[in-house]
């Protein structure tokens, strides 16, 4: 854990590592450490451990604790480590405290499990989670946890809540949230949290949302960093080249199977030379023909980088 405020350190490409499992399905901590270490050394601005891409849903509390601790050790203060926390309020608080004990710098508050709550219930959930530890909290909006602008304003007033990650993709709602929070003289960090955020990066930047998580960084940091650099410097030609030739086809491939936002990414990490194992049930491995297409896409993406001189 570092002493600098988390909000001031989240500036760059955000890395959501996969969680590595061995042939018998048990946690492979050595492979996980290698994955995190490689991401930090490649230029990640932060490590979001045991979140969606990291199969938070499939980890036991003890596995979660040791993974977060390992991520903190591998980051070694160079970049902040944010850990997932989810399920109902009591369990989310338990995971939050485990993350704090493991040395994390912050929490990504995953949607509550199963139930569809009203706004008052969501606000109470996140308020209690934020009060449970000293860690700063980023709320993840998606699925059964969709906020109104009024609730977002209330969260912006909540001690410990510093950000909102959007996994819904409703730009009209996000614009209204940003405007409502700003109009009250408050501030939040906003994140584009869609599964392949690069595809919508330009659109989100139009409403002031510049931070995003990159699943592609897990397996091809060269592609992810080149795109991020082009997007932030206004190199529209490179952005368009990579969107048209790599990111859009990748999103279309991802749509071919349930759970591919995780299993396809994990397969790509293996393709790139690090054996992080397969996904745990209830997720399944991608179909062989989709793996072949994934390999082709990665090769083509790198060819596009050479073409662009990026």
Overview of the molecule:
This is Probable 5-dehydro-4-deoxyglucarate dehydratase. It comes from Streptomyces narbonensis. Keywords: Lyase. It catalyses: 5-dehydro-4-deoxy-D-glucarate + H(+) = 2,5-dioxopentanoate + CO2 + H2O. There is one protein chain. By secondary structure, the protein is of the alpha/beta class. It is built from eleven helices and eight strands. It has an eight-stranded parallel β-barrel with strand order 1-2-3-4-5-6-7-8, surrounded by six helices. It is globular and about 50 Å long. It starts with 12 loop residues before the first strand and ends with a helix.
Topology record:
Blueprint: E1 13-15, H1 29-42, E2 46-49, H2 61-75, E3 81-85, H3 89-101, E4 106-109, H4 119-132, E5 136-141, H5 149-156, E6 161-166, H6 171-183, E7 189-192, H7 201-205, E8 211-213, H8 221-233, H9 236-254, H10 260-271, H11 288-308
Parallel strand pairs: 1-2, 1-8, 2-3, 3-4, 4-5, 5-6, 6-7, 7-8
Helix pairs in contact: 1-2, 2-3, 3-4, 5-6, 9-11
- H/E series, N to C? EHEHEHEHEHEHEHEHHHH
Distance between the termini: 34 Å
Profile the largest sheet.
Answer: 8 strands, parallel, barrel
Taken from the alpha-carbon principal axes, the silhouette is globular
Alpha-beta content class: alpha/beta
Kindly state the mean pLDDT as a whole number? 96
Strand order in the sheet with the most strands: 1-2-3-4-5-6-7-8
Number of strands: 8
Query: Which range best describes the helical content: under 10%, 10-25%, 25-40%, 40-55%, 55-70% or over 70%?
Result: 40-55%
Spatial extent as radius of gyration: 18 Å
Uncertain runs are none
Helix count, DSSP H or I runs of 4 or more residues: 11
Give the percentage of residues in beta strands. 5-15%
């Amino acid at each position: 854990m570092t002493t600098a405020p988390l909000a001031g350190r989240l500036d760059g490409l955000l890395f959501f590592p996969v969680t590595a499992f061995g042939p018998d399905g048990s946690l492979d901590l050595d492979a996980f450490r290698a994955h995190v270490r490689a991401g930090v050394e490649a230029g990640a601005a932060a490590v979001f451990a045991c979140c969606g891409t990291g199969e938070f849903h499939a980890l036991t509390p003890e596995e979660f604790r040791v993974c977060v601790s390992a991520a903190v050790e591998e980051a070694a203060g160079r970049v902040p480590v944010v850990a997932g926390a989810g399920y109902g309020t009591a369990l989310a608080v338990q995971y939050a405290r485990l993350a704090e004990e493991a040395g994390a710098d912050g929490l990504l508050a995953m949607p509550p499990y199963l139930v569809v709550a009203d706004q008052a219930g969501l606000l109470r959930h996140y308020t209690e989670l934020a009060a449970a530890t000293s860690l700063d909290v980023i709320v993840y909006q998606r699925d059964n946890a969709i906020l109104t602008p009024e609730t977002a304003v209330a969260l912006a007033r909540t001690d410990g809540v510093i950000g909102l990650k959007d996994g819904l993709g409703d730009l009209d709602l996000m614009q209204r949230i940003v405007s409502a929070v700003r109009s009250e003289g408050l501030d939040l960090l906003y994140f584009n949290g869609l599964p392949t955020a690069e595809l919508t990066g330009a659109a989100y930047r139009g409403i002031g949302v510049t931070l995003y998580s990159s699943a592609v960084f897990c397996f091809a940091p060269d592609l992810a960093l080149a795109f991020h650099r082009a997007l932030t410097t206004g190199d529209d030609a490179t952005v368009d080249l990579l969107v048209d030739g790599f990111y859009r086809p990748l999103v279309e491939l991802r749509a071919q199977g349930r759970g591919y936002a995780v299993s396809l990414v994990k397969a790509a990490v293996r393709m790139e030379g690090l054996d992080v194992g397969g996904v745990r049930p209830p997720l399944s491995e991608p179909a062989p023909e989709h793996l072949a297409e994934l390999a082709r896409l990665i090769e083509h993406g790198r060819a596009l980088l050479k073409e662009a001189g990026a």
